[in-house]
Specification:
By secondary structure, this protein is α/β, with parallel strands linked by helices. The protein contains 4 helices and 6 strands. It has helices at residues 19-32, 51-59, 91-96, 153-169, and strands at 5-12, 41-44, 63-69, 102-108, 126-128, 141-145.
Length: 194
């Protein structure tokens, strides 16, 4: 049974490579965070943990629009030949292959992001470099990952700022909106149940 369409905001803090990226992302986050229930906000170390957000929605028959703010497009990743494989570098591609799940996918890239990739199809996602173009009335879920291996100091600071904004906005004293990791090692891949 088809459910209502949901809007998902996915933020990988490796997007933030300059002070302007940091300022723009924090400003955008402040615009949306108060409208999202705390139970629907996830902070994580790795992007593969978005599985904990997206998989239940897909299994329940939801359709989504997703905005991925990220230095990388995460469509196919490092190992495109791995059948049904799922990791931080191909999570978006994995879910784009699920019929009737992702209606629209947007990638907010920074100007240093690499676009020319033989596994990347320009028609697969809408690409923008302007955070002002990410305009939705609201998001139903927010996922934020730190990607410590790929983040510079601005990205690391951004992650901590978004945590503090969320704690303050939602009036929670502890970091109780963090989900457990589905991967124990950053390059270990899993094959989710179909």
């Amino acid at each position: 049974m088809q459910q209502d369409k949901l809007n998902i905001l996915s933020i990988d803090c490796d997007y933030v490579i300059t002070t302007d990226n940091l300022k723009d992302l924090v400003k955008m986050y402040l615009k949306y965070v108060d409208k999202v229930d705390l139970k629907q906000i996830t902070f994580s170390q790795i992007h593969a943990n978005i599985f904990n957000v997206l998989d239940p929605l897909w299994r329940k028959g939801h359709t989504i629009d997703i905005v991925n703010i990220d230095h990388h497009h995460d469509i196919f990743g490092l190992c495109p030949t791995l059948k049904n494989g799922f990791n931080s570098s191909n999570w978006l591609g994995y879910y784009m292959n699920k019929p009737n799940f992702i209606k629209s996918a947007y990638w907010l890239a920074n100007y240093e992001s690499v676009h020319q990739n033989p596994t990347y199809d320009d028609d697969a996602i809408i690409v923008s470099h302007n955070i002002e173009e990410v305009i939705l009335e609201k998001f139903d879920y927010i996922f934020v990952c730190s990607s410590p291996k790929f983040c510079n100091e601005y990205g690391k600071i951004c992650y901590e700022i978004l945590v503090e904004i969320t704690k303050s906005n939602k009036k929670c004293d502890k970091f109780d909106f963090t989900k457990s990791n589905i991967l124990n090692h950053e390059f270990r891949e899993i094959i989710p149940n179909n």
